[in-house]
Amino acid sequence: MSHPIVGLHHVTATSDDAQADLDFCLGVLGLRLVKKTVNFDNHSVYHFYYGTERGAPGTIWTTFPYRGRGVPVGRKGAGQVTATAFSVPAGSLASWTAHLRARGVAADEATPRFGEESLRCTDPSGLRFELIASDSDTRPPWPGGPVGEHAAIRGLHHVTLTVRSPQQTVELLTTLLGCQVVDEAESYVRLAVGERAPGRMLDVRYDPAAEPAMNGLGTVHHVALAITGGDDQARLRRELIQYGCQVTEIRDRCYFTSIYFREPGGVLLEIATVDPGFTVDEDVRDLGRSLKLPPWEEPHRPEIERTLPPVRSTAA
Ligand code: ZN
């Protein structure tokens, strides 16, 4: 029987300025804004979801732009996702380098870790990204970005979790979360859900001397894995509690339901359902165009719209 965890769902970060975040994700990465809403735990802050056309699970990057809300700059370190990698077509890295430089974004070629050519760059908040050249990613890109379909991002490739020691993290991922160890390199263990494919991989990077991470501007808040449905989610929640994890209740995120817990290395993980997805409250062609609020926030819409900074959500 296949495992109900089917791959990555999304990665969520605390970023700095809302407009700079939009300009980077739309105009530099070439993602589509698939939902403009608010942080369901703090409605004075936006929650932007970016992805490919429909925001399919495994293609989604999301941000809480917290500028001006008293959140300090975070610290990257142990107990955190320290890099997010997107998948781009093999042969497209030269055009990405030129595109990034033209936009004033420094890009370095990274030493191939698992035989993959890649580029690294940083967003205006200090969040770290990698673009990995893959010849096996058949997911359709969002064609509306500035780099052209031949080079456009296909979705998430993998995330890097930094921990001090890998054993317990790998044990939890392989016993309950459907992962298998598929490769190892110095200070890295690569895990995959189901098959070794873009959008299904997590790299556990271990460094016993890593400083503890601190959430704040420019750091990843959590990574979500996708699960097939609510019954499987409730069952996995019980299994995680039995295993000794402190797990939240099931939360309604409108576009999926979620549970959250920390894995033994301290990284905040979420398990999010595949359905209903981002077309539950907007037609696919209108995704991201207007501010969507969950039903319980609608009564506060006038106040929310007054508080949020105005933004332009088309590529600059
Ligand atoms: Zn999330």
Mean pLDDT reading: 96
CATH architecture: Roll
Can you tell me the CATH class? Alpha Beta
**Hetero compounds:** zinc ion
- Give me the Rg, rounded: 18 Å
- Shape field: globular
The tally of domains stands at 1
Low-confidence stretches: none
Strand content: 35-45%
Percent in helix: 10-25%
Order of helices and strands: EHEEEEHEEEEHEEEEHEEEH
Terminal residue distance? 47 Å
* Major sheet summary line: 8 strands, mixed
What's the CATH topology label?
Answer: 2,3-Dihydroxybiphenyl 1,2-Dioxygenase, domain 1
Q: Which strand order does the major sheet show? A: 2-3-4-1-13-16-15-14
Number of distinct helices: 5
At the fourth level of CATH, the homologous superfamily is: 2,3-Dihydroxybiphenyl 1,2-Dioxygenase, domain 1
Care to count the β-strands?
16
What does this structure look like?
- This protein is an alpha+beta fold.
- It has a single domain, classed as 2,3-Dihydroxybiphenyl 1,2-Dioxygenase, domain 1, CATH 3.10.180.
- It is built from 5 helices and 16 strands.
- The strands form 2 sheets. It has an 8-stranded mixed sheet. An 8-stranded mixed sheet has the order 6-7-8-5-9-12-11-10, covered by helices on one side.
- A hairpin with a 5-residue loop joins strand 15 and strand 16.
- The longest helix is centred in the C-terminal third of the chain and has 14 residues.
- The chain is globular, with a radius of gyration of 18 Å.
- The mean pLDDT is 96.
